Amino acid sequence: MFVLGIDPGLSTTGYGLVEGSHPPRGHRAGVIRTDTDLSTAERLVVLHRGLTEVIADCDPDVMAVETVFTNRNLQTAISVSRASGVALLAAAEAGIPVYEYVPTAIKSAITGDGSANKRQVQQMVARLLRLDSAPQPVDASDALAIALCHLRAAPLEALR
Description:
By secondary structure, this protein is an alpha/beta fold. It has a single domain (2-159), classed as Ribonuclease H-like superfamily/Ribonuclease H (Nucleotidyltransferase, domain 5, 2-Layer Sandwich). The chain has five helices and five strands; from the N terminus they run βββαβαβααα. It has a five-stranded mixed beta sheet. A hairpin with a 5-residue loop joins strand 2 and strand 3 (25-33). Helix 3 (103-111) packs across helix 5.
């Protein structure tokens, strides 16, 4: 199973493709950036095009997306929600099933601690994928973590 993890954001959306082998193998990771000088609508178009290209190139079996969960900054939550919606749309257009995970579930699946910090997640992603160093930028590392989270949760999802 190939899982495409998505860490949505309007400015930067991370993506990471992980193969569910033993041990799991990372195949591709990166980010899609949008220009802050563009309107929100134009940025969403850029994001959609980028995600559509990534999906076509990676041909994943499923997509795993981090859900929006914040009680701090409403404006950030809105922009992340918009980016998340674009990711869901791109997956639906490609006929790919989508699974969503809250940040604490992702952190817990990767580090064993739902309150782990970004650095701890990056280090564990590197360890789990047997990489020499933590994936950069952090958005790409987070996307790999989301894909790994799904691989750990997939057996339980199959029972539903």
